[in-house]
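Section: Multi-chain targets

For targets with more than one molecule, the full set of components is provided together so that the structure can be written out for the assembly as a whole rather than chain by chain. Components appear in the order listed by the source. The example entry contains two components.
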Amino acid sequence: MTNLKINGKTIAVDVEDDTPLLWAIRENVGLTGTKYGCGIAQCGACTVHIDDAAMRSCGVTVGDAVGKEITTIEGLGANGALHKVQQAWIGNDVPQCGYCQSGMIMAVAALLKENPKPTDDDINDAITNICRCGTFQQVRKAIHAAANA
Amino acid sequence: MLPRTREEVAVNLQIGQHVMPKLNRRAFVIGSATAAAGLALGFDLPFGGPAVVRAADGASEVNAWVVIRPDDTVVIRIARSEMGQGTLTGLAQLVAEELECDWSKVTTEYPTPGQSIARKRPWGEFTTGGSLGIRASQDYVRQGGATACMMLIQAAANSWKVPASECKAANSVITHTPSGKTTTYGKVAEAAAKLEPPAEVKLKDPKDWTIAGKGLKRLDTVDKTTGKMIYGIDVKLPGMLNAAIKDCPVFGGKVKSFDEAKIAGMKGVKKVLPVGDSAVAVVADTWWHAKTALEALPIVWDEGDNANLSSETIATWLAEGLDDAQPTFIGNQNGDVKAAIAGAAKTVEAIYSYPYQNHATMEPMNATALYTPDKCEVWCGTQDGEAALAAVLDVSGLAAEKIDVHRLMLGGGFGRRVMTDYVRQAVAIAKQMPGTPVKLLWSREEDMQHGKYHPITQCKLTGAFDADNNLVALRYRLSGQSIMLSEGSGAPKNGIDPFVFQGVDQSGEAAIGYSVANLLIDYAMHNPNVPPGFWRGVNLNHNAIYLECFMDELARAAGLEPLAFRRKLMGKHPKHLAVLNAVAEKIGWGTPAPKGIYRGIAQVMGHGSYVAGAAEISVTDGSKIKVHRIVASTDPGYIVNPAQVERQIAGSIVYGLSALFYGGCTVKDGRIEQSNFDTYNSMRINEMPKVETVLMPSGGFWGGVGEPSIGIAAPAVLNAYFAATGKRIRSFPLRDQNSTFA
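Its structure, encoded as tokens over all components, is:
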């Protein structure tokens, strides 16, 4: 058994150390908000926070994640309230199909923690997630809204 | 192999004719292709009835569309599938508008296609494609809402023993006007459900709408921001196992053998199964174990007749279709093109081509199936619940009353999930493991290599001018793949495919916007053995590029600027012209652009709507393109939710530009070369232009909004690229033309 610290809880999972963290989260822990999109760290649908940094969990192994604080979309809010990025997403009606949005929101939350008032250029550099529905215009608007919240 | 198909084509074409193939009203198994072609099947509309139908929680159905709970919650049934396009919210708005209910109390529910069949299809079509979701059902869903409203009013009037004509409903409250007495929908719903539905209802004039027509927030947003939304990939059932699959990488190939013993000891592996004659699945406790074992499984393929198919052989074959001597069928014709070109003072000719594209939905194909000899159920995202049901019916071999499909949110559809190949596979696997639910998930690589690809085409265009630079003839020869008639698309192979003329039709919902005295638009069908599908926008995508880029070429040849040149040909097409004028005005056409910025325009009609676009770009080093701004206008007749229409237009531009810059699936050794987002890239936020929409619904018709604007994205940018560089790009994606996003 391997102990993973996910969303503030220590969870014992029966999984090999070389399993991608994405699949341990989805299949062994059972948190399915983190999505599979490509498996090669290209699309960002599986983005989680590892010690506050946005990481593509398909490219991180369980072994690498042991002992670190892992946050998934389910654990982003605190004290029963949604995170300000989630609120801005709702306020701006950002998602279309929504499949990539967990990863998008996690990437943006990490950006705002590091850079509370990002410029458009900062956003362009930091947010590289793929959204096939093409929500980028609303994503940008919502990032600024969250930054000003 | 190509020659066989080619002979079939030659035999089957009825040269010069242009008729819609006759489709009988067969059973529901006709599936998706018909609706995508704009055909609708009839169905009964039994709105309510004396026997009260109960919803799952015991609340009474006022009719098939509306359930009202005692606490006044309104449950609106949605037959079409939500995949991000906003149909779920828009359809609910239309029902709620006529129902006169409190929008804050509205929730939605998907009926299953099995329930629909059992009840003689009260919800009509489930197909969600062709930008038809709202426009093809707006009339009967509004009737459903209006009928329910009248029955609720009647029930209240009965309880008060007053005439219904003295009562009115608003915001889920019924008021007896003379006395001021009120009651709520929740209190009279049970009684209303027992009434006979009215024979006739009158729908509101859209100008009186208060819920429809407004940019209300979507009903499905919150769960999409918290990770709670359940997509097909997220389904969990007790005792469920997971399957990974590999289909023969060469289209049409088969499995020769696989060496199960080699992976027998691998962790979690439960079974190794053939799926049909072309695929192998590994079933394991987790998908990760299944996929890992599948990659280690030795499989020997019989690659079959297509092993030598390549992009080069396909391109050569399609180019033959551009020859005047080729058999074709005609889509649009007037005057005498041959004579006009022969007698012209000047002619211009160009050849364009458009590649295969993969839908690349963010959620790869998946379906979960549970089979027993008495029942087969499937849980999946699908754009056509009834087509999925038909697939379950066929593969399970069970009777229709023993099967059903439970629809879940789609992580993107774009036309891919109109097809049911992944559903068939899931059932084929589950059937080999009775009693065990199995979730089949494709890897991204499987998804990239077993798509239903945007059809590949080439187009030769010839324009002819008289001595005064008037365009006197336009010849448009299309060669390439038919979605409707390709092998594997489920449609009959004989006959002709008028659907290929989307955007250049003479009339109808995809009509050309220009009048040319001598016009000939025809098509040589060449169907390579790569399975085609309805790729968001469908045939409009390449036709819009061919027509609108060539119009730009003709304008330059005539010495006119592109807007003025187009306007001369658009006098008889006022709605096409109106959207074009709108973008021209908003982008400042005719006024100097900022330094280093170049503009291009395009217009087209498709999916029942008139759309236009104007782009502003800059180009560095002749090849690095920055798309700064796109103004996009649309006239879809009516607009149900303007906020969602704006998002569909912006999203369409992303889809169109991703395909233009990064897309393109190439074939080598009979297989698709691209395997993931590293080789089939997609636009990111840094490449997103500012999109400004101009919504100009003119009323009187219902057009779609999910697809048509894809058509204008590419030609507007390509025409701006010519303005910037003097270079005309006629083959795509730009990735292969040494051009890319700046």
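Residues 173 and 274 of chain B are 59 Å apart (CA to CA).
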